[in-house]
Amino acid sequence: MSEEVTSTRPKKNELWEWIRALVIAIILAFLIRTFLFAPFIVEGESMETTLHNNEKLVVNKAIYYLGDPKPGDIIVFHAEKTRDYIKRVIAVAGDTVEVKNDQLLVNGKVVEEPYLAQHKEEAKKQGEPFFTNDFPPVIIPADHIFVMGDNRLNSHDSRAIGPVAISTVVGRAEFTFWPVADIRMTR
Questions:
Q1: 3-state DSSP call for residue 71?
Q2: Backbone angles phi, psi at 168, to 5 degrees
Q3: What residues are annotated to the active site?
Q4: Where are the transmembrane segments (predicted)?
Q5: Could you name the CATH architecture of 39-185?
Q6: Does residue 6 have a cis peptide bond before it, meaning omega lies within 30 degrees of 0?
Q7: For 141, how many CA atoms within 13 A lie in the half-sphere containing its CB?
Q8: pTM for this prediction
Q9: Domain ranges of the chain
Q10: Are 28 and 148 in contact (CB under 8 A)?
């Protein structure tokens, strides 16, 4: 007759391993969300047709540890104490930006904006003479950027709030992940 001996030690070790793995996973998730990547929900239509209201996207928080935002980047920044905005970087420190006759000029040179083509077409069909109203030259101060929404007729951006301090930038939008049918890179 054989005798069975059951030990509680392996079960205690297994429980301890599960707890340890769970704690490590929570710490890693916290570190990744705090320093590397974070989800963001687009609120409003200021970035139409590039981004749509209620889309969910991933923001790369680590990218600007290595360098400053560049023209064309779509960024999230702290616009107010309780609200973040998402806009496109148009100009950086030292640049002069203005709009004349519906053309964006940075340092006196016309900037091509292919992401506005559909909007400009719709504005013309609706009898709007310009998609982006003229504004006089603005010189971007050190450690600041000038941002604008892609939906220029419906965007509260640097034209109203002024240049944005780089210290308020959360990160660069990388890709949308919701709705699943619209997963895509944002650049």
A1: coil
A2: -90, -5
A3: 46, 87
A4: 21-42
A5: Ribbon (2.10)
A6: no
A7: 6
A8: 0.81
A9: 39-185
A10: no
Helix (H) or strand (E) holding 119: helix 117-125
In eight-state DSSP terms, residue 63 is H
**Cβ atoms of 41 and 55 closer than 8 Å:** yes
Residue with tokens 């239509």: 45
Please report where in the chains the tokens 């340890």 appear, as a residue: 20
Q: How far apart are CA 34 and CA 182, in angstroms?
A: 26
By DSSP bridging, strand 169-178 and strand 96-100 are unpaired
Cα 130 to Cα 16, 23, 87, 153, 177: the distances in Å are: 66, 56, 20, 9, 33
Helix (H/G/I), strand (E/B), else coil: 179: coil
Instruction: Using DSSP bridges, classify how beta strands 164-165 and 144-148 pair: parallel, antiparallel or unpaired.
Output: antiparallel
Rounded Cα–Cα distance for residues 151 and 132 (Å): 9
**Mean per-residue pLDDT pooled into runs of 10, the chain (187 residues):** 58 81 81 75 90 92 90 94 94 96 94 88 81 92 96 92 95 89 80
**Tokens for 23?**
């704690």
